[in-house]
Amino acid sequence: MFKTGIKFIAAAILGMAAGLAAAAYPERAITMITPFPAGGATDGLARTLAEHMAKTLGQSVVVENRAGAATTIGASHVSRATPDGYTILLATNSTLVTNRFLFKNLTYDPDAFAPIGMIGIGPMVLLSTKKDQFKSLADVVKAAKAQPGTLSIASFGAGTSSHLAAEYFQQLADIKLLHVPFKGSTQALPQLINGDVDLFFDMVSTGMPQVDAGKVDVQAITSKDRMSTLPKLATVSESGYPGFEMTAWFTLVAPPGTPQAATRVLGDALRAALNDEAVRKRMLVMGIEPSDGSPEALTAQIKQEIPIIQSLVKRANIAVQ
């Protein structure tokens, strides 16, 4: 009878395993959390990917915005979500690298997320308000030196790539600017247009349309080399500050403990999106160079960037929160 009981339990376990293996993933909608407000560059990227991934997955991918606190609100939410593959995070370098050096009590572990794949990397553009009538980066630096700590610069938020670009530029140019953090580009841009702030490192996709509309001026781009889509726009590096390079990068991750079976399916859907010509064109227009979508690319990016950002945060004396 004892042996019969063991056989029954073993059969039950095998039956459960077979049932799980047979279960189709995904069976319902997936929520993609983006840690920035609706209407910004990250939100636009999320919706572009979600649309294509939904076709591959055969289920809706719903974008949900949870903005604020240098992406920690959205990241913390996903870190606590059920690890079943139905909640994922569009994370940035702020989320996975910078925040570990800015928060004494970070509300999530940046190394614990289950990687899905690297999305892409994009530079920023240095914008200035029309009121200042700056014609070049040299004009910006001249004004900043004449009024130390008075000229203001907006950012996506404390510790974001936009903020770090501002800090790095101040170090190289030996100037002091007044940092004004916002929750994202959609909040910062109106202030720049109104002349309430003087400068702003913004993503190409949200900043350049305002330049084209004549509402703000652009002074330089933060990439190492000029962008093929903006060949006339000089880099910060070639404008007198050699070596300057600051980019924002984007990736998909899942809650800690998410099964590899789920992250593989999600990764395949991400790579299918990144290989789609229409998606790639939209990303390039946004100023984001598509990656290969692999988790290995994400791991390499994090490893490469940690010592660089740690040094920058220390040299910039950015206050730990």
UniProtKB/TrEMBL annotation:
Keywords noted in UniProt: Signal
Family matches, as Gene3D superfamilies: Bordetella uptake gene, domain 1, Periplasmic binding protein-like II
Pfam families reported in the protein's UniProt record: TctC (PF03401)
InterPro entries linked to this entry: BUG, Bug_dom1
CDD domains hit by this protein: PBP2_Bug_TTT (cd07012)
Signal peptide boundaries: 1-23
Domain of life, per lineage: Bacteria
PANTHER family (alphabetical): BLR1237 PROTEIN, TRICARBOXYLATE-BINDING PROTEIN
Family the UniProt entry places it in: Belongs to the UPF0065 (bug) family.
Protein's UniProt name: Tripartite tricarboxylate transporter substrate binding protein
Species: Parapusillimonas granuli
